[in-house]
Structure formats: C-alpha cells, structure tokens
From TrEMBL, chains A, B:
InterPro entries listed in its UniProt record: Nict_dMeBzImd_PRibTrfase, Nict_dMeBzImd_PRibTrfase_arc, Nict_dMeBzImd_PRibTrfase_sf
Protein family membership: Belongs to the UPF0284 family.
Superkingdom of origin: Archaea
NCBIfam families assigned: nicotinate mononucleotide-dependent phosphoribosyltransferase CobT, PRK04447.1-5
UniProt GO MF annotations: nicotinate-nucleotide-dimethylbenzimidazole phosphoribosyltransferase activity
Gene3D superfamilies: 3.40.50.10210
Taxonomy of the source species: Archaea, Methanobacteriati, Methanobacteriota, Stenosarchaea group, Methanomicrobia
Name of the molecule in the record: UPF0284 protein E2N92_11300
Length: 338, 338
C-alpha cells in the first residue's frame, strides 16, 4: 500500500511545513454547466468561502450546508480538513479575488473576482496581482520552509484550459462532473483563443488578463518569491500556473495531485504536464477500499481533486504519516460530516 | 546615547523577529477635531492604508500625497518604514476593519470599521473579532518567535480613552495634536460611560462593543494565541488592549512606545500603565538632535507616536542595531520624503 500511495517519494528537507490555498472566483462558474463545485451554478461562488470555513473551524455554520456535493459525495475540502487535523497544520488561505467576503481570516490581496472572458478582460489587474502575490510569497517565506500551495476556484478548470491553450499547449481539461461539459468549455476557450490572436498577445500575463482567473497571477507571484521548497497542490489549474511561470521565464513548481486526475479519461493530464515541462507527483489514496461509498465515487471520476486535497495528502505522507494513518483520518472526517 | 535610547534593555531570546500592525478605522476620526492623523477629518480614514502602502512599497502612489502631516512633520510611518529597511523585516499588516480596501496585501479578518458610539454600538462584532484575532495569532505563531505588534487607528486615542475609563482606569489620553482636543474626547467618553453604566456592562468585550474600535479585539485575540514573545508597539491605544486582556482574565503584554508619549503633559501615560498593571519600555530617539526640523517637532509634542513607530525602533535596538544606526536610518528616510 505505502509503495503505491505516492508515485514517487520526494527528498525534501524541512522543519516548518505549511499548507496554503489561494481562493478565487470567476464569473464562469455561474454559467450553467461549467462548474459542479456547488449546489447550484449561482452558489458555486461561495464554495471557496465555505471550504475555508470548514477547514479552519471544522464545520460550516454560515450557511445551512454540509460539505458534500449535491450527489452526496464528500467535497475535497473534507480531505484537506482531515489532513490539517492529522498534521496539526492550520492552513493559511489567500484571497485572490472573491465575490463575497470570507468568514475566516485570509491573507487578502484585494483583487476582484475574474470576469467572463466573453464579456471583457477576465483579469484586468493581472499584473498588479502578480506583484501582490510576490508580496505574499515574501510573507509566507517567514512562515515556512516547505509550502504546499493549493487553490479553490470553481470554474477554474475552464480558465486553466483557456490559458494552457492560449500559451500553446494541447490540453484537455479535467472536471468535477462525471460528464465533463467539454463542449461548453471548448466554446469559451475558442472565444479566448480568438481574442488572444486578435490582440497578438504573447505575454503570459496578457493571456491571464484575457482569459484567466485571479488565482493564477497570485499563485505565480507567490511561487516567484517563496524562498523554501514549494509544491503546487492541484491538477490542471496549478499546471496552468506553471505554464504562466514558464511564459514569464520563471522557475516552474512541481505539482502534487490525485491519481484520479491522472486517470481522468476526458483529460490528458500527464501529456499536458509533459508538454509544459513540469513535474507531477500523484497520490493514490485508494478511496475505493476506504469504507465510504461517497468518497469511493472519486474512483469513478466524480470530484477527483480540489482545495489542494491531493497536495494535502502528499504533505502528510512526506511529513511521515503512513498511508493507513492518512486513510483513517480521512474516513473519520468523512463520517463526521455524514 | 545608547544607555538612554531604551528605558530598559529587555532580555529576549529569538531567532525569527517580526513586526506586524493592526489597521482599523473608527467613524470618530471623521468627527472634526478628534484626529490629526490625516490632511482633513474625512481623509483620516485613509491613513492606515497609505501608511501600509508606504511602509510596504517605500512610496505612496495611490494618492497624490507625501507621508508628512499637514504641518510638514514626517508621519510616524516614516520611522516604521526606516526600521523595516534597516532590519530587513517586511512588516505584516492585519486589517481589522477599514472603510476602504488596502492597496497592499493584509491578513484580513473581514471586520467592519468601528462606528460612532453615540449612534449605536461601536463594534457589534467584538466577540467574533476576538475569535478571528485568535486565528491570526496562530498564523503569526508560525511566522515568528518574537513579534512586535503595533496599530494604526486614526481616532483611536479617543476609543482608547473610552475603553480605559469604562474599565475603571483614570486615564487621560495622548493625542497627535499639539493642542489635545480634550473637551470633545471627554464628551464622547461621557456618552460611552453612561451607556456602559445603563447596560450594566462589566465584560471587557461588551465595553469594546459599546465604545471601542475593531483593532482592540483583534489585537487581544492575537495576544491570546501568539506562542512566542510578544511586545505591543504603541501608547494609550495598546494599553487599552492590555486593559481588555486583563478584563478577560488573559495575560497582558509589555508595551514599547516613545519617550514623547511618556512626557505628554496632557496625558498621564505612566500612571495609566501602572493603574492597569502593565509594563512599558520607552524609546528615546532624541529627535531634537537628529538634523531634521520636521521630525524634531516630535519633541515638542507633535505626533509623538503611531503605526508602532516606537516599537519598531525598540525592535531594531533589541535586534542589535545601535542608536546611531537607527537615528541615521530614520534621517535618511525622512530626507527621501521631503
């Protein structure tokens, strides 16, 4: 079991590990069919806030909700919460741009949520957000020598698709839907690609401005200044940040994500990672045998990843917790939210 | 010189020092005559934002302003900036509740600015802000083992007066005006004391709710959970936080402030410190001989303290910088903003 839990066991020396996550919104998540991260399209924008609240306090009290998908599948934030409890690391949240104020403290860069790229620039302040992210990276450098940095941006696989394609990578993107709404995403992406071409935009930050989301420049900024060892927690969305970093001529960051992202048949994650020239670690928690039908559905392609859940498990394992300790912590957290 | 720079040299062991400051607004600063911290009463609310911007970036670019008072005296934030440059410590800002969004990243607790206590509860969410502050204290515990925590709340000496009096201390309060507007402050304070009595409020958080400002519960929360050595940077306002901590049955925190606060004839700072049972370090930078007429006016009672300037100098000295290095860093920063 332990051999297969991580695709590769990294050699990282550290004394002060930390998990952080960049929260953001894009208006795209409210377009019906784009995001499954919420009980309804309109409510997807609250998911980063509710996830951060649940991970920080252990419960969602600001709305009458349980941290489960509409189909009864535990959200990835439940996994992240379980890892926070197991490792004793209280995650730090970075607010890159949300429609509503969070209910727990965040490092805030005072960014705006991303717009629908079909209606205008998605992230007009991309350049300022990169600078702000660089400031946050310097703050986080004081707090940790090993940082696992995730994201929570409902609709973010679509902005990731737009940015990866516009930067020249043949990506198909994963989704939290079992039925990946490929056509709608492709349509939005077509629009962004045409605008990028029309403007002759080649700078990675211009691509983010046209079709990205606010998480991307903030995460890229953090990666640019963080002084310790950094690992991105996430799949396609963090890969898009790596593509932005590469476009800016800056160092890319290794990814840690779940096996369910790698095996998503509607996407081509490993190929995209190779195309970008990034490196990925895969975590296989074998949820099919964990003893909960809801989380078992991750194996069938439901949810797969989010709120840095893969990276949170990766961090726990690298800190020395065994696969069984990790699985057992997840199961008891899942049960507590049933 | 060095002997007199600090009233007492503390024995503190640390390896990761940090300076942080809690920003907040109270509607009282917009009442003409309450606060001198800004070019006009209405504009006082921007001072925390502009100070944080200047300290972080080295310049104020979001408004056409120099970091000098209307009378041409360098603001205390210039001193804090000079100490950040000298020590290489980039300050961390905590947004406790402001009318406008900051222009640099802050740890945000998503609080509201304080209201005018004559129009209703000043800080209705005092209890939630204490909890949020406790979360921030846990985050900062990861970043530092020695934290100097200041504040920037225009109008905050008036809320400090209200809270200290309501908690039973015979405080008179310092002010950034040469002519301390004692009567107006006393009038507001009378109102708060009457309301506290009418409600029979004895709990320190109820007193903050009725007549305090959002900085107070956030700073008290940070003090409650910070695991390393903590020193409050400031005069009367941080003393009010100590009084709140004492009222809550929690440990008080030593203060570091300027000699100009101690010798303010319109206040009685040392007596108030003794009454609360707190401890204070005084920093005497001897600005009269530093070589700048504007900052020399601190000796004549103008400005005196703010944005944790006293504590920032205290931190630099405790880190091993000499009094002359500190004075010289301040002078060159002051000159750069002339």
């Amino acid at each position: 079991m332990d051999m297969a839990f991580l695709s590769e066991f990294p050699s990282i020396e550290f004394s002060r590990p930390l998990f952080a996550s960049v929260l953001g919104n894009t208006a795209l998540s409210m377009v019906p069919g784009v995001s499954g991260a919420g009980p309804s399209p309109k409510k997807t924008v609250f998911t980063p806030i509710l996830d951060a609240e649940m991970i920080t306090t252990g419960a969602i009290t600001s709305m009458p909700l349980k941290p489960n998908t509409p189909t009864g599948c535990p959200t990835p934030a439940v996994i992240t919460r379980a890892m926070a409890t197991l490792t004793g690391i209280e995650p730090v949240f970075v607010n890159a741009g949300l429609f509503n104020p969070p209910t727990v403290p965040c490092i805030d860069v005072y960014g705006a949520p991303g717009g629908d790229p079909r209606e205008g620039d998605a992230v007009p302040a991309a350049r300022d957000l990169l600078t702000a992210g660089e400031r946050v990276g310097r703050i986080l450098s004081r707090c940790a020598d090993f940082l696992v940095l995730g994201e929570c941006v409902p609709g973010g696989t679509t902005t990731a698709l737009c940015v990866l394609r516009a930067l020249g990578y043949e990506a198909r993107v994963s989704s939290s839907f079992v039925e990946n709404p490929v056509h709608l995403k492709e349509e939005i992406c077509e629009y962004v690609l045409e605008k990028v071409e029309r403007e002759g935009a080649t700078d990675a930050l211009d691509v983010v401005r046209i079709g990205g989301d606010p998480m991307m420049p903030v995460a890229a900024g953090i990666a640019s200044t963080f002084e310790g060892t950094l690992v991105f927690a996430g799949g396609t969305q963090m890969l898009a940040v790596d593509a932005v970093l590469k476009g800016l001529g800056r160092s890319m960051v290794p990814l840690a994500t779940t096996e369910y992202v790698r095996t998503d048949a509607s996407a081509n994650f490993e190929e995209a990672v190779a195309a970008v020239g990034a490196k990925a670690y895969y975590v296989d928690p074998d949820f099919g045998t964990i003893g909960d039908a809801g989380i078992g559905r991750y194996c069938e392609g439901e949810v797969k990843e989010g709120m840095g859940a893969g990276g949170a498990m990766f961090l726990a394992r690298v800190m020395g917790y065994s696969a069984e300790e990790i699985r057992s912590a997840i199961l008891s957290t899942v049960i507590s939210f049933r």
